[in-house]
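User: Second chain of the day. Same drill as before.
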Amino acid sequence: MSNIIVFDIDKTLVKKNLHELIISNWLGGSYLRRVSYKIVCAIISALPHRSLRRRFEYFVMFLICDHDIQRFTIDIMGDANMVNLRLINRIDRYRRLGIEMVMVTAAPSNVVKHLSLHLNIPVYSSRSIFGFLYSDLLGKKYRIYKLLELQGRKIKSIYSDSPLDFYNLSKNYLVLDNFTLTIAR
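Assistant: Same format as last time:
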């Protein structure tokens, strides 16, 4: 059984939610995009159920072309103020030691695939179509952990900003707002 390290993305590897950073870059100086975004957000926030609002949370990402998502992701990863450099250094160290790593996130694949390619780490993510989440990992990452174990991998450590992402059989690191790490019990 091989050891594996798991990283969350939002508020763990990057300072905020990656999709919010990408959207912010995309909005840029465009008045029309900003107004359209506010309208879409108002419509989504008016939806009657929290679970329904969650399904549409990434809708705006559907409007951003893949090339722009790639460019914005690379820009974000190049900004030392937006990236958890401590974890990036750990990733480099784990890579030098030959330890396998994966990212597990509730964000959909169109948001995180370029980060996965940039860091050369596979990602397990929620799935969406036309900006609508149809397979959501929020609060369900244990399903991926079980899948990894079935594949003969032992989760050695998990790095995340949420205790909901932790697994009883691994060493869990809680990433706090200022990117400090604490071992979760």
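The radius of gyration is 17 Å.

User: Great, on to the next one.
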